[in-house]
## 1
Amino acid sequence: MKYLAPFLICFVLALTASAANRPNILFIIADDQSPFDLKVYDPNSTLETPNIDRLAAEGMVFDAAHQMGAWCGGVCTPSRHMVMSGRTLWHIPDKTMPGRSPLSADPKYVPTDLPRHTMAAVFNDAGYDTMRTCKQGNSYAAANKQFTVVHDAVKRGGTDETGSAWHAQQVLSYLSDREASNDSDPFLIYFGFSHPHDTRDGKPELLDKYGAVNHKDRNSLPAANPKQPPLPVNYLPAHPFNNTDMKVRDEMAVSGVWGKRDERTIRNELGREFACSENIDIQVGRVLEKLKSMGELDNTYIVYTSDHGMAIGRHGLQGKQNLYEHTFRVPFIVKGPGIKPGSRATANIYLLDVLTTICDLTGIEAPETCEGSSFKPVLEGQSESVRDVLYGAYCGGDKPGMRCVKKGDWKLIKYESSKDGTKETQLFNLAENPNELLPEHHASHVIALTKTTPKPNQTNLATDPNYAEKLAEMEDLLLTQMRSHDDPYRFSDQPNDELTNPIGFDDPRPTLKQPRQRKSIRSNQ
């Protein structure tokens, strides 16, 4: 025994040293931020975010990161459920039971013990210290409770106490406490903001920088100011058709905008959004400086993203209840050990891939409930792709709502309302038409406002007979994706696949008779 004791001591010390050297995770998530607000995605943007730019320069920028969609107007809710659980859109719970997704309370699709397999629970079990600060509501409450330290509150004001600085202070205080107690455990910090989600009450000095005011009078227009951001190139005074949810709160009731889409209103609201986003950048910088002073920065994987994108005038829309790229895509930047500085990735990823990936990066086994794919090989330069096809859904309004599918340069979006007869299809070549410009963008009065003259082929190609074969291919691909993701709805021109309507809903909400096999979710499709 006297020879065994030193061996055990050395073994324990080795394990302790190994645990202490494991990389930390700082996961930063904004609320309602389009990637095209940032210079790293749109060099013409007037938004200044030097700390986010520095993360991009020192890490990897993803050009095809997406959120999968939503079955409710509060797109934040399913998005954050997917981030926390690593599961696909139709395999997550809702805040209520039965939920707004017809499958959300069905244990065949959603494990009853899922909270025990979410982000914080997994990292707690692996010996990490876990901390969270974010907005309250429209989130996965049962998963949020798994964090050891939680400081959640809605902070959308224009002061340090009522705005984004409050969230940063929670992280800074937590790191100071660790420093004071010589805590050497690796940590996972979920650093969330309540902005730039409306109401976008920015700090006065930042509002002034972007020529914006916190407009409160529904019966007047905000003042024009040359310092305000210009209109987006895909701005429209109105969306050309009912997209199945045009009366949702974001399109009708955002303070400062309401239902207006005129130039002065949109440019002022963009200025407010930019003021809030620059403040987020300032707070990110404070936390990065703290990590640097603690000697933890180089051993920390830092992710910067948003729960979804945002319209704010693009395509005549204001909110996040659509599947255009400004909303379907999200900003996504990763810096950390082994990631080539200044690199960019074209790999298609979902936000739901985050949990599997950070487990992979830290040597933790991802829970069996995860349906995402690890993009660690992309971060390390060993692979250029994760999946070939992306699927998106939105049905928070009329059913079946909107669906999209992307493959290569091509994207299809379908719309259908069972209530008013809306049936629309859009086909885009994103290589030639990255802003998804429509026929309405070619109108002279729109060109005068955006100062952008579209090329003839920068339009919806769905009715062009030259692209009939591509349209059919994408229609078939969409149906395949709807089936493989257990989408419980179908469009009227698709086979109904023996879907049935559950009892207890006022509107038709079909559900599948049998769940598909889980392994098909993890395929490259």
## 2
Amino acid sequence: MPKPSNDGVSSSPDSTLSGGGETASSTDNTSRSTRGSSGAGAGPVAAGGDAAADAAGDPGKRTANGAGRTISARKKQYVIAPRQPDGLQAMSFQPLQFSALEQALRSSNDIEVVDTVGPKSVLGALADGMGGSQGVLVARMTEQKAAVLHQQGQGRLLVEHDQHLNLMDPALRQPAMVTGVMSTSGGPVLNAVISVIGKDGAPQPEAEVSLFGSMLPASGVTDANGQVTLSLFGETPESVRGLYVKPKSDYWSFYQRDPDISTDEANVVTLRALSDWPSLAGFPRQRAYGWGQKAMRLDQLPGNYRGQGIKIAIIDSGAATTHANLKGIKAGFDVLNKKTNPDGWDQDTLGHGSHCAGVIAAADIASGIRGFAPDAEVHACKLFPGGQISQLIDALEYCIDQQIDVVNLSLGGAEVSEALEQQIVRAKRAGIACIVAAGNSGGAVQYPASSPNVLAVAAVGKLDEFPADSYHAQTLDQNVDAYGYFTAKFSCFGPQVAVCAPGVAITSCVPPNNFAAWDGTSMATPHVTGLAALTLAHHPDFQSPQYKARGAERVERLFQIIRASAHRVSLADQSRTGFGLPDVLVAVGLQNQANQQPAQVAPQQAGVMSPMMAAPQLGGAMGNAMSGLMGGGAVYDPLGLDVARAAQLAAYGTQWPQLHVGRFPLPQPYNPIMW
């Protein structure tokens, strides 16, 4: 979390924003009267305290017997920003002045401004061609104060919870409901020792091990001897339903359904080395292409197509430059520690960002794997663990300042953020293409992949690319085509899905200098990001004056080419695969797609918030709704809602809700999981 700013304000805030700049002790009545007024004199932001916040009580209140503090809601972090003109024109409002807003918030003694995110240079301030973007404020306050602030903004102010973003699946799910089942000291307890070994019986430390029963699972990590003891309460050996082992690196995962568990002796799991698999024979000593890269025909691309001159940003958990395949990454930004160690981007404690970086741009050396665009200039923006919306906005600001071409976003949040959407639109106007993971909840496409201003990627797998006893086999569904391609069970779906890409059993780099095979739309997205870099670098269209210049039209043309390069895979409907699996040779202009009609997508006009988009061809009721909305041509949606999203909401029978404290509720529950 950013440290509180010590910047003071010497002048009084604008009277129309602060209610005359009164002190906190004298503004309660003013604040109440302002909230109840809709006249021209009502100020949208009050600088002082408010009765609603005071009514919340002291969060640190002591108990009657002095034994401790009573648990209550804490102050929360919010993103506050003027709503940009695109969203204000329909309401005939003028945007708030950022400087006056900042002064008003800093002069309030019940609002703590902890960070300011904005253009990092004159180039960044003018990058979108609008000249009016001024950034966002990050502040801590009570929920009541946030609600009052939002109301006083009169539609001109965004006040959103600074939600945490997700990369990794939590070890334990939160219980869905309160039940009558509970473990007691008198109930059965199953204690099992799991021993994990690799080649030649070598113990495997730091392997994640989970046992699943009929109630809560038990999870742990193996010690230096490769062992872990797990305890399942209320279970017997006969009720254990599954055993899952995820090695730290260099081995395939393991999953056994209905395992025969002994409580009397160690239960030994022998893992298979990645190099034991036929397609990875000799790996990593000998260089290899991943199965996904071969499926997209990267291995057939001429050797001089390497992404030269393109800048790629990977907003993730950093990139471990200790890895032989990632030593070429020379630039980045640690958003989490920007005030203390902005150069800490090369420390990747999760391995997730390094894995994505390997697929995109692993160096073309004699060992390891080869990435799609090894000669591209890669920037690693460290946002995890613990990244929030405000920090993602800051990372995109870095991308605008650095004139990045393509951004990989293998992440997502629980709610739509209008403040983040404004930044995505701004990045698009600056010529930055955001490639985003659709999500792993198995439900509707999550945000920001659901944004009409990005390219959303779903995940597919392929038979015979992983051992049958690995956990990868659990991702298989019934939609298998004649070539073995299938849609992954976990992959999110919906009309926003543009394309699919390999996202099951993807082998790539992990710290410090190892490899791992992982699943997720997180792993599918880098395949498309790498392809996008190659397309920008080598497709003839981007050497022409029309699309060489940075801007939203360039981004829309890139998205159109990627969609047009794709071919159908699996037997699933197109809400799960979009236009299909992109082809590298077609995307760079070396081949034409056989029997493929170009996607009818009108290029985005610079300065327009919502693009004019066509969605994948969908069947059934959703397809009919789409057809009616499209009317056979491109549609501009002034509310920032693409026609595909409208069709999805119509299918759910859900109306697009009004903003409430800057939030857009989703039509289906969100389940945070690794993307």
